[in-house]
Design goal:
Blueprint (H helix, E strand, L loop, with lengths): L1 H8 L4 E2 L15 H7 L5 E3 L9 H5 L5 E4 L20 H4 L11 E2 L2 H12 L5 E4 L2 H9 L8 E3 L14 H8 L7 E5 L11 H11 L7 E5 L14 E5 L4 H10 L2 E4 L8 H8 L4 E4 L4 H4 L6 E4 L4 H12 L2 H19 L1 H23 L1
Parallel strand pairs: 2-3, 3-5, 5-6, 7-8, 7-10, 8-9, 10-11, 11-12
Antiparallel strand pairs: 1-4
Helix pairs in contact: 7-9, 8-12, 10-13
């Protein structure tokens, strides 16, 4: 706990307009010694922040290694996502001359990037859940020469499946009649990367044309001053288990993921596995999640009017919406079933181990 608290305090020394999580990963660490001394044939890293592993400790790992990236931290500075799509510092390298004018104080991002460049000498096998994130890796100044593979997230499709809509709405106390639109994000409307403001603008345009439409928000409780978007909003708070989430998705008619930048958002693939079409912007990792006009709608980035058009297009008739839902469910089983993802990782492990033994021989 103390390590995590210290890691959260250090970014305060850097003043930046980028509101995403920043992880310095700088505290001395001995976990690498335990991992290197273990009897494991291969290590598989996922999330290593919260001062779990320092940048230096990652560089000291000596076993064959696969690292699944869940955001941009590995090839960036201390930030987990760039400050918008126009922020290309991860491609250029972190130098004094390309520090954004909105940055002040300690250049924590540059300090972390330089430590990664100094200590990460041996390329690891990287895995990215989306083609967009893999492309970012390949364009990065730090890891552009490292091997990268695209393997999406697995989903327990036996839980994330269509559940009876009437029952699901009753469980959450939602209206029995009329279309329901769902938006979800940890932190809800407080995270600008998740695009609530863009959805809000779209709802203001939709409200006069779809008078029966109501919205559902999960990931936060109702704020003291709820936004006025011309239609009712139901807040269900944070849900902590897969079954509750699957039921909530099933209670609604369309999921909207208006992110400005995202990897392969779980909400988008979970909703589709429940047979719910998804509307999102055609940007970053969203095209991997949504097949345009087959499992949902990809709007022009970052146009609230086209986002509103996509929502209306999905909801315009129940027969078309049900067809989209069936296609979304079928695609989810095809792409994100646990057995498929496990097979892809098993094959990759064999490749990494084989290459290691070959180089040793």
């Amino acid at each position: 706990m103390a390590r995590s608290l210290f890691g959260a305090l250090l970014p305060v020394l850097q003043r930046t307009s980028n509101p995403v999580l920043h992880s310095p990963s700088c505290l001395p660490c001995r976990l690498d010694r335990e991992l290197n001394a273990s009897d494991a044939d291969l290590l598989h890293l996922h999330w290593v922040q919260g001062e779990m592993l320092s940048i230096e400790a990652i560089g000291r790992l000596r076993k064959p290694l696969v690292w699944t990236l869940h955001d941009c931290w590995a090839f960036s500075g201390s930030e987990h996502y760039p400050n918008g799509l126009e922020d290309l510092r991860y491609e250029q390298g972190y130098h004094h001359h390309n520090r954004p004018p909105c940055h002040h104080g300690l250049d924590l991002d540059r300090w972390c990037w330089q430590r990664k460049r100094r200590h990460w000498r041996r390329p690891f096998q990287l895995v990215c859940p989306s083609r967009w994130l893999a492309g970012c890796v390949q364009r990065s100044a730090l890891l552009g020469h490292w091997p990268v593979r695209v393997i999406p997230y697995p989903l327990p499709t036996h839980i994330y499946r269509p559940w009876p809509k009437e029952m699901a709405r009753q469980l959450f106390g939602l209206p029995a009649e009329g279309p329901l639109l769902l938006f979800g994000a940890l932190g809800g409307s407080r995270d600008p990367r998740k695009g609530w403001d863009l959805l809000e603008a779209a709802l203001l345009q939709l409200a006069p044309t779809l008078p029966g439409l109501q919205a559902v928000v999960f990931g936060q409780s109702q704020p003291p001053d709820p936004p006025r978007v011309g239609l009712p909003i139901h807040y269900v708070g944070t849900l902590h288990d897969d079954q509750s989430l699957a039921l909530l998705y099933s209670a609604t008619d369309v999921m909207v993921v208006p992110s400005r930048m995202d990897n392969l958002p779980q909400t988008a693939i979970e909703a589709q596995s429940c047979g719910v079409p998804v509307v999102a912007f055609n940007t970053s990792g969203l095209p991997d999640a949504v097949e345009h006009q087959r499992t949902g709608y990809l709007a022009e980035p970052f146009d609230p009017a086209d986002l509103a058009h996509g929502i209306g297009w999905v909801l315009e008739n129940s027969e078309g919406r049900e067809r989209l839902g069936r296609q979304a469910r079928a695609r989810a089983i095809q792409l994100w079933s646990p057995q498929r993802i496990a097979n892809l990782y098993a094959a990759l492990y064999e490749e990494v181990l084989s290459a290691t033994f070959t180089s040793m021989g």
